[in-house]
Design a protein that fits this description.
Layout lengths: L1 E6 L1 E3 L8 E7 L6 E8 L4 E5 L14 H13 L5 E6 L10 H16 L6 H16 L7 H6 L2 E7 L2 E6 L6 E6 L6 H6 L7 H19 L3 H6 L7 H4 L6 H10 L4 E4 L6 E5 L2 H15 L7 E7 L5 E2 L2
Parallel strand pairs: 5-6
Antiparallel strand pairs: 1-4, 1-13, 2-3, 3-7, 3-12, 4-6, 7-8, 9-11, 9-12, 10-11
Bound molecules: L-homoserine (HSE).
Length: about 300
């Protein structure tokens, strides 16, 4: 039997639309991600557990984990008879890399169970392909950090698909899911087809400057440059109370705040634990749809990524 845990992630990080993503883990030691267990079986079986299992498609063939299994079988030209159990702990359409968690955990688990017929790079390409099926376009900013851990820069060149870049180890990442769902493809379709020359230049400066600041350990410069010119201006209309909540978070002194991936989750950064608690309260009181469905977690960067657990 093999059990793989794949952590939640924040895509874009404001400054790197589709090219930056970070895996995260709550500082209280709890797990925030999906798990996949594989057991030997005479036939293929898919069982679904977890808090969000009822939000998954009713037809098994539409489940992304079934698609992972199917793609894997095609890739190695063989029907794999296994029992897969998905623990769907992540809310779907949350902007926290929920689909990436299922895809990454499933593909690693199948690969490990079969004694690794696919290499890491082949797996990552397959992960991107499956993520593309769900969101309409291939983007690696959730699957890469979820798989490889840390802060990942997507380069998408043959030998350099994604590279880990230094992260600020004293940053706390507060993420809040408001209890509503947004489809990534809808949040992508709302974006402009073209951007002005000024926006492109400013975006390049911010992203290049952020990478420079990461390598030179300049936390102040890095957080100042975490500005979203590409997605946030067009996506806030999908996010009730986002602008108001962000304003309050910045007012209490957060280093940065933005939309996690394609939303609706919000993220904020601070170095201070008391401020992290304050930000959590702001999110709960201003951004939650109601008191029952959402959650807020204070996290650190998960430097390991997907892993086998007992
Ligand atoms: N970069 C992707 C987007 C992330 O913003 O559409 C999706 O989680």
């Amino acid at each position: 039997m093999i059990k793989i845990y794949a952590p939640a992630s924040i895509g874009n990080l404001n400054v790197g639309f589709d090219v930056l993503g970070a895996a995260i883990s709550p500082i209280d030691g709890s797990l925030l991600g999906d798990c996949i267990t594989i057991q030997s079986s005479k036939k293929f079986e898919l069982k679904v557990l977890g808090s969000f299992k009822n939000d998954l498609p009713k037809n098994e063939l539409d489940n992304i984990v079934w698609k992972c299994w199917n793609y894997f079988c095609k890739k190695i030209n063989k029907k794999i008879n296994i029992k897969i159990t998905l623990e769907k702990n992540m809310p779907i359409g949350s902007g926290l890399g929920s689909s990436a968690c299922s895809i990454v955990a499933a593909l690693i688990a199948i690969n490990n169970f079969l004694k690794k017929p696919l290499q890491n790079s082949e797996l990552l390409i397959l992960m991107g392909k499956l993520e593309g099926i769900i969101s309409g376009e291939i983007h690696y900013d959730n699957v890469a950090p979820c798989y490889l851990g840390g802060l990942q820069l997507i380069i998408n060149q043959k030998k350099y698909l994604s590279e880990k870049i230094p992260n600020f180890t004293n940053w706390l990442w507060i993420v809040g899911w408001p209890g509503i769902k947004i489809s990534t493809s809808q949040a992508r379709n709302i974006l402009p087809k073209k951007y002005s020359k000024e926006t492109c230049i400013q975006h390049s400066k911010n992203l290049a400057g952020f990478i420079h600041a990461s390598y030179t350990k300049n936390s102040k410069l890095a957080s100042t440059l975490m500005q979203d010119l590409i997605a946030e201006p067009y996506r806030t209309c999908l996010l009730p109370n986002f602008i108001k909540t962000k304003k309050k978070i910045i007012e209490v002194g957060a280093l940065s705040c933005g939309i996690s991936g394609s939303g609706p989750s919000i993220f904020a950064i601070t170095k201070n634990t008391d401020m992290a608690v304050k930000i959590s309260e702001i999110i709960k009181n201003n951004y939650f749809k109601n008191k029952i469905d959402g959650f807020v977690k204070i996290c650190k960067i998960d430097t390991i990524g997907a892993r086998e657990i007992g």
